[in-house]
Amino acid sequence: MDITLIKTFLEVANTGSFVAACDRLYVTQSAVSLRIQRLEDSLGHPLFIRSKAGAVLTPEGKQFEPYALSLLKIWEEARQQIAIPEGYSRAISIGAQYSLWSRLGFRWLDAMQTEMPELSVHCELGMSDRIMRFLVEGVLQAALVYTPQLRPGLEVEPALDDELILVASWPDATLDLGTAFVSVDWGPEFTHALALALPHLTDSGRSMALGALAMEYIVNRRAAAYLPARSVKRYLDSGKLHLVADAPRFPYPAWVIWREDLPADLAALARRTLTEVAEAAENEQETLTKGMDTIELFEPGHYKLFEGE
Hints:
Elements: H1 3-15, H2 18-25, H3 29-43, E1 48-51, E2 54-57, H4 59-82, E3 90-96, H5 98-115, E4 119-125, H6 128-137, E5 142-145, E6 154-160, E7 163-168, E8 183-184, H7 188-197, E9 207-208, H8 214-219, E10 224-228, H9 229-238, E11 242-243, E12 250-251, E13 254-259, H10 264-289, E14 294-299, E15 302-306
Parallel strand pairs: 3-4, 3-5, 8-9
Antiparallel strand pairs: 1-2, 5-13, 6-13, 7-10, 7-11, 7-12, 14-15
């Protein structure tokens, strides 16, 4: 059976839409429809009920879904096993969102290979949706994300208590930033908290849904923005970015997602080493942000201001 058909089926099932599936698979809607039709012809049953509202699994589709996940898992296991380079006997595949690689992902990779030199590590980069798809499909066995999603066969755990801090590309910046402030999309909770704490910054003439990539924009022009403390530390150390005086900071935790079928010894190694590198990163961050006001999340969707020590 063509594994591409299985991946397409799972993408339509996950999104509930042929249109959304084609966007995620980077193919045309007609290609998605053709793949699903071929799979339905092979199985002899319709798998989706199509309507203007989207696509819903038929009873036969619901029965097929766990088998599709199993087929994809077996395929990825075989592919990864065959791809192990000469000189290595074990393999693990990990992923992370862009800003989680620099201070956590790379160190995690190093720590695992230091303890297990025979371990080959494959890494993937992507936004949360892409990482989640790779986890479901078995392309990845563990991943670091800011916005995890609960899916069957996956386990979510806290990884790092990161924070968003206000930085500027020039020294002695104050909260009166005017048009220099760049609004970065860190999710609805942050947007709401920022509007409560610093309402004068909500009417920014520049907004970006680029996450940590916005850091490169800020560094190279007169601008300021809220960015992850862990990611900007090297720019603060080099003097390319500067903390904005009296600016509150906001929590922005990272999570690790594990496939439940990750071999027990590799899971133990990965958990232990991730804990070690996360603790080191949090110690660095505590030194960086000591004395700043912090906005703490005290119940879902709400933030509270506490005075820094």
